[in-house]
Amino acid sequence: xxxxxxxxxxxxxxxxxxxxxxxxxxxxxxxxxxxxxxxxxxxxxxxxxxxxxxxxxxxxxxxxxxxxxxxxxxxxxxxxxxxxxxxxxxxxxxxxxxxxxxxxxxxxxxxxxxxxxxxxxxxxxxxxxxxxxxxxxxxxxxxxxxxxxxxxxxxxxxxxxxxxxxxxxxxxxxxxxxxxxxxxxxxxxxxxxxxxxxxxxxxxxxxxxxxxxxxxxxxxxxxxxxxxxxxxxxxxxxxxxxxxxxxxxxxxxxxxxxxxxxxxxxxxxxxxxxxxxxxxxxxxxxxxxxxxxxxxxxxxxxxxxxxxxxxxxxxxxxxxxxxxxxxxxxxxxxxxxxxxx
Amino acid sequence: xxxxxxxxxxxxxxxxxxxxxxxxxxxxxxxxxxxxxxxxxxxxxxxxxxxxxxxxxxxxxxxxxxxxxxxxxxxxxxxxxxxxxxxxxxxxxxxxxxxxxxxxxxxxxxxxxxxxxxxxxxxxxxxxxxxxxxxxxxxxxxxxxxxxxxxxxxxxxxxxxxxxxxxxxxxxxxxxxxxxxxxxxxxxxxxxxxxxxxxxxxxxxxxxxxxxxxxxxxxxxxxxxxxxxxxxxxxxxxxxxxxxxxxxxxxxxxxxxxxxxxxxxxxxxxxxxxxxxxxxxxxxxxxxxxxxxxxxxxxxxxxxxxxxxxxxxxxxxxxxxxxxxxxxxxxxxxxxxxxxxxxxxxxxxxxxxxxxxxxxxxxxxxxxxxxxxxxxxxxxxxxxxxxxxxxxxxxxxxxxxxxxxxxxxxxxxxxxxxxxxxxxxxxxxxxxxxxxxxxxxxxxxxxxxxxxxxxxxxxxxxxxxxxxxxxxxxxxxxxxxxxxxxxxxxxxxxxxxxxxxxxxxxxxxxxxxxxxxxxxxxxxxxxxxxxxxxxxxxxxxxxxxxxxxxxxxxxxxxxxxxxxxxxxxxxxxxxxxxxxxxxxxxxxxxxxxxxxxxxxxxxxxxxxxxxxxxxxxxxxxxxxxxxxxxxxxxxxxxxxxxxxxxxxxxxxxxxxxxxxxxxxxxxxxxxxxxxxxxxxxx
Lengths: 341, 682
Prior knowledge:
The complex is a heterodimer.
Chain A: H1 13-23, E1 27-32, E2 38-43, E3 47-52, H2 53-57, E4 70-73, E5 81-84, E6 88-92, E7 97-101, E8 114-116, E9 129-135, E10 140-145, E11 149-154, E12 160-165, E13 171-177, E14 182-187, E15 191-196, E16 201-207, E17 223-228, E18 232-237, E19 242-245, E20 250-254, E21 261-267, E22 270-275, E23 279-284, E24 289-294, E25 300-305, E26 317-321, E27 325-329, E28 337-340
Antiparallel strand pairs in A: 1-2, 2-3, 3-4, 5-6, 6-7, 7-8, 9-10, 10-11, 11-12, 13-14, 14-15, 15-16, 17-18, 18-19, 19-20, 21-22, 22-23, 23-24, 25-26, 26-27, 27-28
Chain B: H1 2-8, H2 25-34, H3 39-45, H4 48-75, H5 79-149, H6 162-168, H7 171-174, H8 176-181, H9 183-247, H10 251-261, H11 266-281, E1 286-292, H12 294-299, H13 304-320, H14 328-339, E2 345-352, E3 358-366, E4 371-379, H15 417-424, H16 433-436, H17 441-446, H18 463-496, E5 517-524, H19 526-531, H20 536-540, E6 549-557, E7 560-568, E8 578-584, E9 588-590, H21 595-605, H22 620-637, E10 671-672, E11 679-680
Antiparallel strand pairs in B: 1-2, 2-3, 3-4, 5-6, 6-7, 7-8, 8-9, 10-11
Helix pairs in contact in B: 3-5, 4-5, 11-18, 21-22
């Protein structure tokens, strides 16, 4: 019937291009604001979007609340990692780390506060920064990525203090062991290295792929994700997701997950992991799968738990990955809704 | 016995009480001469009260006498008879008295009645008089009011106001001294003046009428003169034809066209005028002509009663005789045909391009629906062999589809048509477009027809300006459309043979050696595209409508087979084709389970602007296909070797890459750098 014809919105060139961009968007990193009410997400086009969690979670949330409050162009390349201090948002992607003031970020035309580039060895290609780690006690920012080194930057002065070498291939992820301040790094070379911050020396190396229980040669040997609980460490990637006892460097539990995991974190008495595949997986420490909650993206790259004390009503788990959407889980059991670029 | 005696004694007249009982007629006769005795007169003299007493006494006496007679009779005896006789005589006397009294009573009664009657008669007479007088009074009153209300005709005339009257009227009419004081005279004077004025005006009117007659006659004369001029001018025109041809100024031809154009319906006329103007001003390659029968067009303007009469008579004849009535289907069919009737004239536009190909557009006007439609045909300088996959590219049905976004031409743009369709059972115009032509929105705009959109619009533009503002854009779009379709046509011919035709000015985008080959290039149907498992995202995003063209390409290298489903938007090449990939090599990899496939799609879909090549960008599709081959090469060669499996890699790495993996997603280096010739990451 003429009247009842379902018409797609007439798409001009602009609309098609924007639709294609959204389809091919990957969100690499997330970070929660210090007040706990906002979530920043960085994507592969170098854009950062700020979502208002409090608006999206409130009872009169409309469709517009699930859209970003602002989106701005932060980097020339993808924004691989972000981290928040109590006043700044630090974002890193193509070789540079930039800082933005959380208080100013919602205003139009926000400019970065400062930008820094660690001293790289090669100049042919600018290496990416895959991981940022804050060491609050020493006011340090540790960057690691494409040039296989860990750089430490003093947040007060902005100078790069030392660089730790040891990895033979680029570094994927960092984790902080607070008790004895040590940094764990996992990389493409399949090794997890522990570094002591005070002496700036490598303390321990765990070559995960060499252990038969967890290695999976057909996936490769790369370590995609790391999390540590001082005595324990969980890592995954090419090899299976495994829980390690650090002092003895032995794998205690192998989690039976076939898909490579890209992000893992400890939460209360559970381990949450996400990677290839739609779901956020919840594991008991014993190795049992407690729950698998599907999200809306075909693959997940980052999980973020909003545990800021200032906003208890925004205590949610957000997951993002191979799509333009950030899934919000108010309760670990199901996906409540999705924010979208 | 006593009754006999009373009868005998009847005529005797008793004078009064105590008077002797005899009374003779003769006496009464003699008394009559002098004064006659009337008992009536006597009644007046006697007192009724005393008469009543007398009556009572007499009755008592009678009763006493009867009782004594009774007594005597019962006692019997000789004396009794005399006593009885005596008493009998006394009672007779009493009887006489009673009779007299009775008579008197009757007379009194009669008298009383007579008097009453008389009085009553008098009263009635007075009453009647009173009534008569009252009626007369009423009648007179009515007459008076009638007279008072009488409006003379003179009050209905609007007289000029008093001041004006005194100003304008000549003094012999106005007679101010007299009229000022006397309103009656004043009114008379004013009426006089009115009459004067009217007489004057009537004179003037007669004069004007005669003037008008004169002028009309003059006009007639001039008209005749002019009409006699026309044939002379025509003969001059004819004589000048050979001169025109000699000088290459075909005014006559243009004139003829304008003549025919006069019979065009308004939208087609607007289109004709604007197109001719545009052709003369901007584009020498545009030619405009009018086709069709002028006589039929003239016939349309016959008086409407005839055609309506035919219709009514037709329908009445249909309803009158059941045997002759056509089936309902045929009736509806006729009505539908009537509704979809085209105007007999159509405008033909020919757009010629530099390479010799041309786009022929025929514009029709549907009279009852008030919309314009267009039929398109593409002709090329040389004969084209159509590759199988290019079937739809230049087909008249779809070559102009979506010239502007969303303008697919399957639905009538006039919202009023829906009601008309309902009456004759037409569901949608889509069924008739092949025959009637497509009612694209830009066609309506070229004809100056502006319909309210389904979504509220803010601007309303009127006829010619609407057409003019669209003409240039539309003509340019039409040209680009034809060019890009022809380019695709040629490219498809090559693609079907497995060769990706990359022009020399696009060679820099790709490395010199590309091993992966395009093996297959076919069209697929829209439904098949939506059924594919790796195209769900595109379908959900609304980018795969039914106005697009769909193709499947197959790229192979060794054991690896890459399927690419392509969505070609009618607005190619300003809107890029969209690729969705599925790689079959060591398992099936799509963008759902392999980040690198996703990255490859992104390279082709999102970064398409670098692949457009030189303007006007017709190389986009072939460049995208070539890039796809390059990406497959990179993917296969940079796949990390699985240590557990024996044997060499299937695809040795020949591409120069700085790094194999980068970023959390471990993406391969898909970006080709020219002129250094190495691959890096974006």
